[in-house]
């Protein structure tokens, strides 16, 4: 064991020789590690650490030091404080993370002023990347994962859709994007309702939907409990038997919460960039490595964002020769493309936002486990919110 | 007549005099600036929360009005200053003034609702008001930005001179200066006959009318002042963060504030400041040590302090002083 360790150390040391003079690269991550969104932080950290571990904590010849700060979820002043301290006190080269849109918005001025690259790994409002010229996004935007399922529905004999969204910013955005894409493709919205963000009772809404009898319901609620409650009611009231389908954005059925939703999730058609059962050698390797490193968790799209964020840093540093200064880094990262566990992805040279394939999936049982099985896709999709 | 009046006011004047310990306390922010130059954003937010806590101390510690919705004023002030700055009126001091006026109006109006009931009713009313504001801010997406937060704030330099910088130096001195001035005013206030009448109301509300003190008028005045203080604190946070999100109005901000005040010790002004310093420093240190499970240790710390120091940190300090006095044979 000791022998093996020393071999690893020697190999790592040899690999690092060209950059011996280089300072360690400090990456500061601002993530929700406690509170209601702690799962976001955990998954993103898992992914990021997995990539670092696979590369002996060395990216492009520079040793990487990861510093993680908890911003507790939606608390923009803490996110901003964390970002500022990472820059001023810890002297990080790169900011990363950002679980929710307000955190990214609050930290953007820090990246702008300090000229530090800021890699967004989940915050999904379309406008995030416009807030600083140093922001790069490796996750997704809300319109990007909403438009495909609308397009798919219109093409697949779903003519009449009833929309049910939670009454808050992301819900309203999802509703607007769905309506826009779906009606443009010839579909019809036969009813729409906005439910309270906290503890809604879905029973009356479900009854109404059953009476209207649309072809499908477009669902957007905060992922987790509410999906569980909605799908339970949906099953109990026999809406599925009445021929009504559920379509949604894929974050509602992502791997981390899918088991909690349970069998009621079966049959939900949704769109997202990553599925645990995505069929590619990269993903097989990723899933295997993930389970080995974190046997208690399931790999989801957020973990892949963390993983790809580190991959983006590695590839960009290789291009700049280890230089992580803001302008050079961002210039090199623009237009960068690589193969992620989710498939081929790229950074848009104009908007610094992600370009990726969005898959249409259906929740099915695979080897006794609920999974999002991909059956259709919209390739190389830019953020529709910026057009 | 003149002579007897002066005699009556002597204890008040004595209480109003600044003690050496207090002067020493106010050296802390100056020292902190030099000792922790890299933590200025945290220190700024401590100053802001201290001001917010001070406003709760005025209404709870002195007048005995319990509130579980004090964030309503904090948030309203933050949105007032934020919206001003987002629409081209970015002067910070004007922002503070407007926030103070707007929240004072809300405070005055809601004070009549608050005065209607006893403690439990007050908890409900204050909670209700803050929840309503939260929901309004959530719905008015076009104005407030809803869940995504208010964007596009451009805050001008303080007094046209000092620009807000990355290191947070300007923000720090700005927040500390505002805190000091408002603390000084609050101190004058609680040591005035008005402040004493508030104490009287808290201790025995039945007797105060007999002394000729208009109970409801006094309470509504102090509630309005407390609201304005909270509004200014909110405005400070908005200006120094240059961003406002819905969480300024959230319930847990009110609840946490109450916790901080209890931790520090209510009814002494300094308790509010000390409580904030202890709570936020502990929060910061613990969450840096352990990003996942820091809340456990924070909870443990709170329980220990409350168990062993009656009346919070302030009570603990008083106990220490009493013991020292006894040991050195000094008498009060």
Structural descriptors:
heterodimer; A: 387 residues; alpha/beta; Rossmann fold; 2 domains; 9-stranded mixed β-sheet; 6-stranded mixed β-sheet; 12 helices; 15 strands; 24% strand; globular; B: 332 residues; mainly alpha; 15 helices; 0% strand
What does this structure look like?
The complex is a heterodimer of chains A (387) and B (332). Chain A has 387 residues and is of the alpha/beta class. Chain A folds into two domains: 2-140 and 279-352, Response regulator (Rossmann fold), CATH 3.40.50.2300; 143-272 and 359-386, Response regulator (Rossmann fold, 3-Layer(aba) Sandwich). Chain A is built from twelve helices and 15 strands. In chain A, the strands form two sheets. In chain A, strands 7, 8, 9, 10, 11, 12, 13, 14 and 15 form a nine-stranded mixed beta sheet that branches. In chain A, helix 5 runs parallel beside helix 6 (169-184) and helix 11 packs across helix 12 (326-333). The longest helix of chain A is centred in the last third of the chain and has 20 residues, at 301-320. The N and C termini of chain A lie far apart (56 Å). Mean pLDDT of chain A is 89; it is low at 16-21. With 332 residues, chain B is an all-alpha fold. Chain B has a domain at 21-250. Chain B is built from 15 helices and no strands. Chain B has helices spanning 2-16, 20-25, 27-35, 40-62, 71-86, 92-115, 119-139, 141-144, 169-190, 193-203, 215-241, 251-264, 270-289, 294-308, 312-327. In chain B, helix 4 packs across helix 13 (270-289), helix 6 crosses helix 7 (119-139) and helix 13 (270-289) crosses helix 15. The longest helix of chain B has 27 residues, at 215-241. In chain B, 46% of the residues are buried. Chains A and B meet through helix 2, strand 3, helix 3, helix 4 and helix 6 of A and helix 4 of B.
């Amino acid at each position: 064991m000791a022998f093996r360790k020393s071999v690893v150390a020697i190999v790592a040391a040899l690999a690092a020789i060209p950059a011996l003079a280089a300072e360690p690269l400090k990456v500061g991550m601002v993530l929700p590690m406690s509170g209601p969104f702690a799962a976001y932080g955990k998954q993103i950290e898992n992914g990021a650490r997995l990539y670092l571990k696979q590369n002996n904590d060395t990216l492009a010849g520079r040793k990487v030091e990861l510093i993680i700060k908890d911003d507790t979820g939606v608390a923009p002043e803490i996110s901003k404080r964390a970002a500022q301290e990472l820059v001023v006190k810890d002297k990080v080269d790169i900011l990363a993370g950002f679980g929710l849109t307000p955190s990214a918005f609050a930290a953007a001025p820090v990246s702008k002023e300090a000229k530090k690259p800021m890699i967004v790994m989940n915050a999904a409002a379309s406008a995030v990347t416009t807030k600083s010229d140093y922001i790069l996004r490796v996750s997704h935007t809300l319109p990007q994962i909403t438009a495909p399922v609308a397009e798919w529905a219109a093409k697949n004999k779903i003519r009449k859709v009833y929309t049910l969204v939670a009454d808050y910013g992301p819900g309203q955005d999802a509703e607007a994007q769905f309506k826009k894409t779906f009606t443009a493709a010839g579909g019809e919205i036969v009813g729409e309702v906005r439910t309270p963000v906290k503890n809604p009772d879905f029973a009356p809404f479900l009854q109404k939907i059953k009476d209207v009898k649309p072809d499908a319901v477009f669902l957007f609620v905060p992922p987790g409990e509410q999906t569980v409650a909605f799908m339970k009611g949906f099953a109990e009231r026999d809406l599925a038997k009445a021929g009504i389908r559920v379509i949604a954005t894929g974050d509602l059925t992502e791997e981390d919460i899918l088991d909690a939703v349970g069998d009621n999730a079966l049959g939900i058609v949704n769109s997202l960039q990553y599925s645990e059962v995505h069929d590619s050698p990269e993903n097989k390797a990723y899933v295997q490595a993930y389970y080995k490193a974190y046997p208690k968790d399931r790999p989801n799209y957020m973990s892949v964002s963390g993983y790809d964020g580190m991959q983006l840093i590695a590839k960009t540093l290789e291009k700049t020769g280890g230089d992580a200064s803001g302008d050079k880094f961002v210039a090199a990262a623009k237009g960068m493309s690589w193969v992620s566990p989710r498939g081929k992805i790229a950074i848009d040279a104009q908007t610094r936002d992600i370009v990726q394939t969005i898959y249409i999936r259906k929740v099915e049982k695979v080897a006794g486990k609920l999974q999002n099985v991909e059956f259709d896709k919209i390739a190389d999709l830019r953020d529709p919110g910026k057009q | 007549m003149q002579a007897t009046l002066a005699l009556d006011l002597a204890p008040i004047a004595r209480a109003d005099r600044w003690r050496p310990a207090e002067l020493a306390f106010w050296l802390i922010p100056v020292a902190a600036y030099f000792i922790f130059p890299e933590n200025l954003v945290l220190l700024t937010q401590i100053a802001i929360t201290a001001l917010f806590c001070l406003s709760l101390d005025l209404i709870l510690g002195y007048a005995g009005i319990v509130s579980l919705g004090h964030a309503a004023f904090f948030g309203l002030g933050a949105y007032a200053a934020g919206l001003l700055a987002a629409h081209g009126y970015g002067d910070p001091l004007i922002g503070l003034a407007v926030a103070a006026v707007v929240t004072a109006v809300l405070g005055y109006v809601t004070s009549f609702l608050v005065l209607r009931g006893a403690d439990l009713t007050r908890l409900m009313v204050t909670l209700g008001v803050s929840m309503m504001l939260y929901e309004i801010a959530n719905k008015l997406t076009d104005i407030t930005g809803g869940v995504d937060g208010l964007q596009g704030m451009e805050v001008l330099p303080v007094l046209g001179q000092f620009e807000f910088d990355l290191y947070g130096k300007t923000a720090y001195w700005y927040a500390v200066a505002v805190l000091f001035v408002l603390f000084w005013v609050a101190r004058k206030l609680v040591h005035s006959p008005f402040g004493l009448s508030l104490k009287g109301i808290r201790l025995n509300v039945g007797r105060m009318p007999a002394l000729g003190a208009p109970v409801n008028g006094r309470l509504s005045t102090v509630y309005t002042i407390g609201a304005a203080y909270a509004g200014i604190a909110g405005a400070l946070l908005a200006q120094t963060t240059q961003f406002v999100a819905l969480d300024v109005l959230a319930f847990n901000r009110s609840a946490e504030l109450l916790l901080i005040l209890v931790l520090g010790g209510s009814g002494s002004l300094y308790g509010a400041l000390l409580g904030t310093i202890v709570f936020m420093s502990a929060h910061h240190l613990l969450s840096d040590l352990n990003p996942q499970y820091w809340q456990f240790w924070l909870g443990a710390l709170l329980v220990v302090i409350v168990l062993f120091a009656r009346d919070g940190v302030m009570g603990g300090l008083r106990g220490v002083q009493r013991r020292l006095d006894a040991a050195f044979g000094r008498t009060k």
